[in-house]
Amino acid sequence: MQEVKSILMVGVGGQGTILASNVLAEGLLKNGYDVKMSEVHGMSQRGGSVNTQIRFGEKVYSPVIEVGAADVIVAFEKMEAVRWLNYLKKDGVVIVNTVEIPPLSVLISKEEYPKNLIEEISKSVKTIAVDADKIAESLGNIKAQNIVLLGVLVKYLGLQGIDWEEVIKNNVPQKFVELNTNAFRKGLEVI
Amino acid sequence: MKKIMMGDEAVARGAYEYGITFAAAYPGTPSTEIIENIAKYKEIYSEWAPNEKVAVEAAIGASIAGARSLAAMKHVGLNVAADPLFTFAYTGVNGGCVIVTADDPGMHSSQNEQDNRYYAKFAKIPMLEPSDSQECKDFVGYALDISEKYDTPVLLRLTTRVSHGKGVVELGERQNVEMKPYKKDIPKYVMVPANAQKRHVVVEERLKALRQLSEEISINRIEWNDREIGIITSGISYLYVKEVFGDEVSILKLGMTYPLPSELIKKFAEGVKKLYVVEELEPYIEEHVKSLGIKVIGKEILPIVGELNPGIIRKAIKGEELEHISVDTKVPGRPPMLCAGCPHRGVFYVLKKKRVPVLGDIGCYTLGAAPPLEAIDTCVCMGASVSGSHGFQKANEHKGRKQKTFSVIGDSTFFHSGITGLINIVYNKGNAVPIILDNRITAMTGHQHNPGTGKTLMGEEAPEIDIAKLSEAIGVKRVRVVDPFNLKEVENAVDEAVNTDDTMVIIAKGPCALIPPKPQGECRIDQDKCKKCGLCLRLGCPAISKKDGIFSIDPDQCTGCTVCMQVCPFDAIEKVR
Ligand SMILES: Cc1ncc(C[n+]2csc(CCOP(=O)(O)OP(=O)(O)O)c2C)c(N)n1
Ligand code: SF4
Ligand code: SF4
Known about the structure:
The structure holds two protein chains of two kinds.
Chain A: E1 5-12, H1 17-30, E2 34-39, E3 49-57, E4 70-75, H2 78-84, E5 88-97, H3 104-107, H4 117-124, E6 126-130, H5 132-138, H6 145-157, H7 164-171, H8 177-189
Parallel strand pairs in A: 1-4, 4-5, 5-6
Antiparallel strand pairs in A: 1-3, 2-3
Chain B: E1 2-6, H1 7-17, E2 22-25, H2 32-38, E3 45-48, H3 52-65, E4 69-74, H4 75-80, H5 82-91, E5 97-103, H6 117-123, E6 127-128, H7 133-150, E7 154-159, H8 160-163, E8 165-170, H9 186-189, H10 193-216, E9 220-223, E10 229-234, H11 235-245, E11 250-254, E12 256-258, H12 262-271, E13 274-278, H13 284-291, H14 310-318, H15 344-354, E14 358-359, H16 384-398, E15 406-410, H17 411-427, E16 433-438, H18 467-474, E17 478-482, H19 487-498, E18 504-509, E19 523-525, E20 544-547, E21 550-553, H20 563-567, E22 573-575
Parallel strand pairs in B: 2-3, 2-4, 4-5, 5-7, 6-7, 10-11, 10-13, 14-15, 15-16, 16-18, 17-18
Antiparallel strand pairs in B: 1-8, 6-12, 9-11, 19-22, 20-21
The structure holds thiamine diphosphate (TPP) and iron/sulfur cluster (SF4) (2 copies).
């Protein structure tokens, strides 16, 4: 088995980072990995910045990823990718959803949403930009963007061998299984 | 079977497997999920208490009756429950009793970052500190064994990263633990001075035995490796130390952190060249090690403020830092905010307009302190709004400053500790005005039921405590129930309060936008009528935005609460759905 990998999922409260990380962790566990995760609850439903950390390998100690230790950052929103970028390893990769969610200060025109973020990020690190929101919308529900991103991540990590569709089935309500399975498949096709 | 579990969930699993019969809690991040998960096991009777003191006292009662019991709370909750806690140490238990405190280093969702390990020492109650989810489950078992064997309550201390961290847990079966017989025992359970004086002697004898236990118990263990460096650590810090050093250094891992094992510490210190203590927050272990006359490095290189993480430890002890990416782009912050359609928003808008002092409290409505509303003057602890507003008003009055003082308090917080403040206002003939923001739920901590919602933790129907009738019964002269989505109604009530010397309570009763049935309306801005005055933006509703000079409402977020419609002076906002 390989060395410990660290995945940092960041986004905005309500985007489904926790579901995506739960699916990831369960799939990894079923395939014999030791897994640790860390998330912070509380303010998440009030539109704040959220993060979930997943670490897996033969034996994992810390549930927390330190600055400079993430192999992959999966950013569900562009600005959040930048906010957390210092957690990435020098040779790490950012999978970034191209979606823009303005914080209150931008909504009320006190601050501006920064421009050209993806170009900025890709200058310093390998970047995979994904229109996960649009892909999910084309499948009928923007909420499935989290599972699209999970699909991209799984492909990047080369973990397609795991029966993810089974895990998805266990983690989403019956009526959303098809949507999420399709979202996952679309995610696999992105790279 | 193996399962990935959150630390809180694993504590609940431990409660199930180790035969707990009774559990009570008041919500509080990061502890809330403990009892929410316990409630899934129908073998355990579980309930929300109105506050932590009541939860602990109920657990004490269940223990004395002979049941294994548990109470759970966040760190500051233990302050509220401290009174019963200290004397419970004297009476001891009948059925085993575990009191869980979930501390919040870094203050992810708290007003302070107190280190509750000192409570164990202060109250003379043994404390266990798990490092991961598996230990969370296992330590409930150890705690109950210790509790029953040594006739003492046991504190189980988690921290945010343990509570909300997830790891693999091996599941077991539930042990069928019989209730112990109850025998009336006045010298043991009635803590009048004559009995308590004798019980204190028992406590000291018990501590001697517990010190011995701490030397021998398997969860206090040495991992001998290279002897150049030795690290004493506990809780989440142990995992960080392992992350940084693996098997490079020797480690004394403490699972039982009160009482501390002095002999084991001495033996470890003698076995290594350079000794460190790695612990989050206060130098709790460090002080003990130093009191033994042992030279040790701790807080001079590690922070006393905030959380630790592997990076901090790596830098402090090894002097190394991981290479990382850095970008120059600055991005705006993203603080949490009141939801679109939140019933609290309109009340804050009115209060801000009236320029009155508003003593605040803890809940979603604390977000009313953030821009652009900035409608709250204080936030100290749960309940401090109502009682604080009374002192604020009285002091002003006494020195001839005339100004009406208001307070805002949520329904759950009012039941928790607002009622006594209201009694105080009536009793001492004050007239500060509490506004009870009754959104029909405990929203901040994730929407739990409370005594006003008509439902129990286990999902049963329950009587709804009527806040208006309660206020009247206390003797409040004017009780006004208003619709928080109707600004005129709110404003009239606030004006009435400003102009009367009678005691008055305003109850703003309107449901949180996130509880089902979720409101399904929509307001829209008529671009022809909009004069771009920007008044609607002052509500801080995330559905309203100004982009390139155009004001608009996001139909996906808007709930149609109409608060912005009432604020617009040009009738440019209309309800379309
Ligand atoms: C002593 C104590 N216990 C628990 C908490 C955690 N806590 C913060 S706010 C809150 C509940 C708020 O509910 P409510 O008063 O109904 O306001 P809402 O969030 O619904 O607006 C709780 C339980 C705390 N801060 N202090
Ligand atoms: S969760 Fe409910 S009470 Fe809290 S901010 Fe949102 S609408 Fe308001
Ligand atoms: S009606 Fe106005 S204030 Fe209410 S949710 Fe919609 S945009 Fe926000």
